[in-house]
Amino acid sequence: MGWPARSGLRSVNDNATYLGGRDLRSRPSDRRDELGLPVHLVYAVVDATRAIGALIAESLAGAESSVTVPQWRVLVLAAEGSVNLTAVAEDLGVHPSNATRVCDRLVKAGLVNRQRDGNDRRHVRLTLTPAGEELYASAMRYRRERVEAAMARISSEHRYALAAALVEFAAALDAVHLESRGEPAEDIRGDR
Hints:
Layout: E1 9-11, E2 17-19, E3 22-23, H1 39-61, H2 69-79, E4 83-84, H3 85-92, H4 96-108, E5 112-116, E6 124-128, H5 130-151, H6 156-180
Antiparallel strand pairs: 1-2, 2-3, 4-6, 5-6
């Protein structure tokens, strides 16, 4: 079954949603994955994540500083508040020495500062420099503008449904991430 590589998701007049001409509403005859989910729905979400990944890459491509995806993740963590190297390593799923190298490159690029924690001098906190703050703000502004333009192209009803579904989806991805690290995660499903 050939699924469109990108932008195959569209809405039609009767508010049914289609992927490359295929109805996304529940169809019992559809193949299901190992978790019992209709495969066509999983493909539709994967296709959307591919489009979002392209948006992230675009937002970073225009930056004067060349930033990798792991480096971007560190900038996001630091933008949310000062963060230590242990938290960076855990978030990236890498050994602390690899996280240190990622952070070293950001320090060298002038995007992140290292500061000793005032309460425990053994710990180093990472914060954004003014250049790091500007890069973060610029990339987020670019994304927000693109998301706004895309959302303006869909009906108001679908905008609200999309936002509600994405809030739940983000929480579910966070839970999967925690479970993959062996940490407990809350079951957020409302249909059980």
